[in-house]
Amino acid sequence: MTDTTVTTVQQNQLELLQTLNYDTAAVTEALAFTQNDTFKHKLFIQQYGRVYAESDVVARTIKAVQESKESLAALGVTTTSTPTASDSSQAS
Description:
The chain is mostly helical and 92 residues long. It is built from 5 helices and no strands.
């Protein structure tokens, strides 16, 4: 019998796909930030819902990541530096 249980990480990944309209570039950006951390995931989803200045999904995602990082700093949550996918592509 096959195990059909969906893990929290898988559920978070599915939610990212749906929220970001299945835009894989945007999902890559979001995953680079969240790193499958549930707190960062929830924070990102909330911030993404608050970003209205950007209409493009990738631009909106990058803005939500930035807002999430600023929120983490304001909350005093210490995390290791999480480069986004666009950071690594710019380094090439």
